[in-house]
Amino acid sequence: MIEEHMPMVVTITKVLYETPTIKTIVFDELFNSRPGQFCMVWVPGVDEIPMAFSAANAITVMRVGDATAALSTLKEGDKIGIRGPFGNGFFTTGKVLAIGGGIGVTPLFTLATNGGIDTFLFGARTAKELVFADELSDVTDLRIATDDGTMGHHGFVTDILDQIDATEYDTICTCGPEMMMKGILDRLVVKGIESRGQFSLHRYMKCGVGVCGSCCMDYEGLRVCRDGPVFTGDILKNSEFANYYRDSSGRKE
Ligand SMILES: Cc1cc2nc3c(=O)[nH]c(=O)nc-3n(C[C@H](O)[C@H](O)[C@H](O)COP(=O)(O)OP(=O)(O)OC[C@H]3O[C@@H](n4cnc5c(N)ncnc54)[C@H](O)[C@@H]3O)c2cc1C
Ligand code: FES
Predict the structure, then answer these.
(1) Mutate which of 48, 64, 244 to test ligand 1's pocket (most atoms within 8 Å of Cβ)?
(2) Nearest atom, ligand 2, residue 223 CA
């Protein structure tokens, strides 16, 4: 475990092109983390942002704004800073169902490669954005949905959730857009199994270690970085989850 407030400077050894908007950045240090834990990635001169580990020595980045765009331009030999691992991660028992959306597949991918997932429902906008699909199909029963119908079910990943009996699973792990996870939570609540659901949240973070308050969630003031980022459905159903999120100034959006 490295110092919480000081990044370890690592050197990039490889950059893998995954999809038109996603790259995997491999570096020269190994971090011992549990699937679902995250690190704070310092991009020199730009920002420091939260990222799941996609391997002990890698992160997988989707380009959405300044920091992720800067990360996407880095190449072998460049340096970044890593603080972590932070957060709780997934705790699974029994038969496990995973539901991933877009880049939210990353923490579930590490769970799958550890042999921890029985059935994997994976949704993306289009076939080209299905990062890790080949590797996942080797280790789980993978079922795909794409918004544009270019692979698998034509529609949302929640449609394929409706086609299976979620009550057969002891743990249901999910990560993806908050509205997708809200659809999943609603379905688990109807079946009375929301406490089996483990939801990994992507919220705005500054410190990553429970100090600054920028990731706090109403109504209990849960800190996503310290108390999460994985929360069970029974906790989330009484929170601000999927009602609003907070921007970099803490304002509700
Ligand atoms: C625990 C955790 C793990 C994450 N793991 C990954 C990962 O493995 N790979 C990956 O690509 N991304 C991951 N993210 C999301 C990543 O942190 C954001 O995409 C990044 O901070 C955006 O920074 P930016 O400067 O590029 O974009 P910004 O300019 O900050 O924002 C661009 C757009 O992205 C949205 N955005 C900003 N921050 C977040 C956020 N934290 N989550 C979702 N949307 C955001 C903004 O609303 C805006 O629409 C993770 C987030 C968390 C909290
Ligand atoms: S990011 Fe600072 S308290 Fe969570």
Answers:
(1) 64
(2) 4
**Of residues 200, 100, 91, 181, the one with CA closest to residue 142:** 100
Domains of the chain: 8-86 (2.40.30.10), 96-203 (3.40.50.80)
Q: Which residues line ligand 2 (CB under 6 A)?
A: 205-208, 210-215, 223, 225
CA atoms within 13 A on the CB side of 164: 21
| Reported pTM | 0.93
Structure tokens at 234: 């029974």
| Index of the ligand 2 atom closest to the CA of residue 210 | 3
What is the spatial distance between Cα 131 and Cα 133, in angstroms, rounded to a whole number? 6
Mutate to test the pocket of ligand 2, among 215, 222, 248 (most ligand atoms within 8 A of CB): 215
Residue 53 CA: nearest ligand 1 atom is 8
CA–CA dist 50, 64 (Å, integer): 13
212 CA to centre of ligand 2 in angstroms: 5
d(CA 180, CA 238): 17
Tens of each residue's pLDDT in the chain, 253 residues: 445 778 999 999 999 999 999 999 999 999 999 999 999 999 999 999 999 999 999 999 999 999 999 999 999 999 999 999 999 999 999 999 999 999 999 999 999 998 889 999 999 999 999 999 999 999 999 999 999 999 999 999 999 999 999 999 999 999 999 999 999 999 999 999 999 999 999 989 999 999 998 898 887 889 999 999 999 999 999 887 877 666 766 667 7
